[in-house]
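Case study 2.
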Amino acid sequence: MAATQGSPSRLATVTALRQRYERALGLDLAAQTAECIDYLGHPEVLIGEFVDAFCQIDGSTSTDLWVREPPDPDGELRLEHFYADLEVEVRGEDPFGFVCVEGEIAPVLSEDAPVGEPVAGLDYAALVSGAEAPVLGAVQSERDRTSYQLLLRLLTCLAEVAPENQRKRLNHDYFKDALPPEPSFDLHLVVWDLGDAGETPLHQLTRDLCDVFMSRVAEEVLFPPVLRGIVCLRMDPDAFDGVVDFDWRA
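Prediction:
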């Protein structure tokens, strides 16, 4: 993986939005559904937490992009579905492709995390083929088992990446200075293709929450116009061959 210039500093504060995401990891499906419904009923709460997180990172002088160090050769090797230079085909009525420029990016470090360990971050950064539009992706795992948890992680990471200094580091270190000063990112929410078993009420509620978030965040004067849309993709986690299916866009 690419190395970040200089030694990464540790972030002295953790945003309320990141704490919200971490709490959601411990909630069962019913509790996540109830929380998502609460957000839909009061979207200003989610927007407020998101903008506050952005402002907190934007006002900090200790943030720095950082990627996970290469694994210890004597330690456990964890294979990634998405990695640098991987070409991905998106099937659907309007097919497209993207090329990963990096995998496993942690936007910030936290003093609450073990030394040398990043907080949960992005699973890949990519460029849409032809359009050269940047993408930040999060993929379902044994840790993030629902689309709602994935959405909270994506929004948390976007708030941490969106400040100007953070965007410059992201652009320089991973996108090789190919992005404009205010790039317009797509967020990719990649869920496992489980057929009917994956069609839970929470998944539909998460899609509704994405629609509400996109309409509300566009009105926020404190947040820069760097979010183009939220895209849900489906993948086969057991037989992934670089092909995913388009589900929806908010």
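The longest helix spans residues 201-217.
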